[in-house]
């Protein structure tokens, strides 16, 4: 399977248009159409409907594979390039909003990014190092997507708290089990709190449904919403006051590609 054809397919599905994908990729629309036709011929099935432009069932399945395949290929290219290139004159570090560790990283260029973008940035070589965070049992590694053979080192484990509004019936508890709050109203704030998907996975329930969506990385704004009763949120204890969570911690891991970490 030609990776150039695969990149074109991903671009067309993302853009929902052959012409917009052509503009994004720097191709003619005719070339994009030829790429898609060649990929469909290679796989022996239609991957896109044309009006509207949307993936077929086979196309959606291919998309599930395409992202990891392309990231892996970019990671291989970036790692080999790094092995033979001169060391850069600056250290670029990407971190998820809750993962800042000033005592671990001495970077001169810091980018605050969604967790997934930190992973792919380190894999593709646009970031020298990454710091990502998430929910874990004490001493357990984070359950991260396998986008590349990344080196991962735990650098911090911190207590977690549930942020509750004043007067909440559970606000006086000394500790709380997350599963007890599965049916509560939650704020879906994936970039400024522990994502609800991680709470569901950790508790083994299908609860933790969002009452409101909060997009962005401004934690004080999220805290104001939780305090006003719009929903609950889980945060590291050093960032917010709340009821401590039992049996789980906020873990931060340092990510690098092995060849880059060995060169420093």
Helix content: 25-40%
The whole-number mean of residue pLDDT values reads 88
Order of helices and strands: HHHEEHEEHEEEHEHEEH
Stretches with pLDDT under 50, minimum 5 residues? none
CATH superfamily of the largest domain: Periplasmic binding protein-like II
Please tally the helical runs, counting DSSP H or I stretches of 4 or more residues.
8
Structural class: alpha/beta
Q: What is the beta-strand fraction?
A: 15-25%
Q: CATH topology of the largest domain, anyone?
A: D-Maltodextrin-Binding Protein, domain 2
Query: What does the radius of gyration come to?
Result: 22 Å
Please give the CATH class of the largest domain: Alpha Beta
Shape: globular
* Count of individual domains: 3
- Major beta-sheet overview: 6 strands, mixed
* Name of the CATH architecture of the largest domain: 3-Layer(aba) Sandwich
Give the strand order, joined by hyphens, for the main sheet: 4-3-5-10-6-9
Find the count of extended strands (DSSP E, 2+ residues): 10
Distance between the termini: 36 Å
